[in-house]
Design a protein that fits this description.
Blueprint lengths: L5 H11 L4 H11 L7 H13 L4 H17 L6 E2 L1 H12 L6 H13 L2 E2 L1 H28 L1
Parallel strand pairs: 1-2
Length: 146
């Protein structure tokens, strides 16, 4: 079996402009067969989600992978300390604030963890409010016009 790095996978996806179902299978089976192992790989996949067209299946995989890594793959196991909370909020924020998938990751990490740094809980709530408000103006204008 040929080993493909997360960097190589991301380069391929950026070149293609999308993540196909076949690409997702390669990611699951060959690139991350043992799950995410470090922050750098998580950061690359989080950035990739913003950069290319991915499927709902890729989003679901990314959410599950980052939650598993952040909650169960870092110490203290099951808890999100300030260091992990700071890293995760920074990675999910990107340059323009969290994407809908990023907001979902933040909420799922808080839900899964037995305890989270207050800063991550605040970030998750703010991220979801930001995403919700970005979508609602059309609903609001419709409601106001009615």
């Amino acid at each position: 079996m040929t080993m493909i790095s997360v960097q190589q996978f991301c380069n391929h996806a950026v070149s293609a402009g999308t993540i196909s179902d076949e690409d997702l299978l390669v990611l699951k089976r060959e690139v991350l067969a043992d799950g995410l192992m470090n922050r750098e790989d998580a950061d690359m996949l989080i950035a990739l989600e913003r950069a290319v067209i991915g499927s709902d299946a890729f989003a679901d995989f990314l959410v599950a992978s980052v939650v598993d890594f952040a909650v169960w793959g870092t110490r203290p196991t099951g808890y999100i300390d300030r260091d992990v909370a700071t890293w995760l909020a920074s990675s999910l924020s990107g340059r323009d604030g969290p994407s809908p998938v990023g907001a979902r990751i933040a909420m799922e990490v808080v839900r899964e963890a037995q305890g989270s740094a207050e800063s991550l809980m605040a970030f998750a709530l703010a991220a979801n409010r930001w995403i919700r408000d970005a979508v609602q103006p059309t609903r609001m204008s419709f409601a106001l016009a009615a």
